[in-house]
Hints:
alpha+beta; globular; eight-stranded mixed beta sheet
Amino acid sequence: MHVVIIGGGIMGAALAHRLGGAGARVTVIEGAAGATPASFGWINASFYLNEDHFALRTAGLEAWRRLGGHVTWSGCLCWEETGDALDAQRDRLTALGYDVEEVDAKQFATLEPNIKAPERALRFAQEGVAAPAQVAEALLSGSRRMTGVRVTGIATSGGTVTGVQTAQGLVPADRVVVAAGTGSPSILGTVGVALPMLERPGLMLRTSSVPTLMRHVIVTPGQEVRQDQQGHIWAPTSANHQSDTTDQITSRPDVLADAALVRLQSMLPDHPLAWDRVMLAARPVPQDGLPVIGACGPAGLFAAVMQSGVTLAAITADVLTPQVLDAPLSNAQSALVAPFTPCRFQSG
Length: 348
């Protein structure tokens, strides 16, 4: 079976890896770089929108562990909330069965000696980070790739997918998966599939490489931050990046990066920092904020579009691959993805 995946970011790469391992012949069509290179790379379930979303994200962590080798399981230290709100966050996650440890200032200082300790924080030891662009590249190994190619639509015959239309002609396919981020609605729209999206641009800065200053993902009331294995510190230019609802960025990226660097420097006052890159990306957020995973439109067409693609790429590949290859899902897999099918946006 020949499967064409539209999109070569972390989502398309995970799907290509999983489908190829299941015996499919895979071609990935990659257009312009999407959100993956500018992703923060935090793999977590401590941020979630509802219990179904929490279950999917928790399964996402487990799927990455099964896949192995691509994630640094550094853990997270979080005090985005304070006082009673931190208690409520701890209690909600604990009630859901999440591994939550409360640490005091002394314990925090042992875990992260370079960062001024809050009075207390929550530690999520099971969370991790990935370098999304590098992981995507590794997962795409073995797949055929068409890079810089513009997709103009989905080809069908008799209500069944027959291939992908590109600016250079038709690429025949038995199955097509649209994982093209914010480019997905226009592609799906060519066969009458609706996918309303929110405008959610994001800016990510990266500092010049410095000695190791932090081990965990750090989530403060005004900044999310992590350090990669090469010594670069990554931070969104917006506070509370996970729940950011900004629909446009009108300030200059360098000005926003400078402001974020001031916040970073206040966290690490003894260690001079300078940013070397700021990256703008359009984050793919469906209208209700929740992932889109599953079959849609003509037979043989599937979609995988979501924010937090890094967290959810591995589990999406696990649950979508059987569907693409006409294999049954387990009862647990069916229950996991039932709330996230594309049909929720289709009228009639």
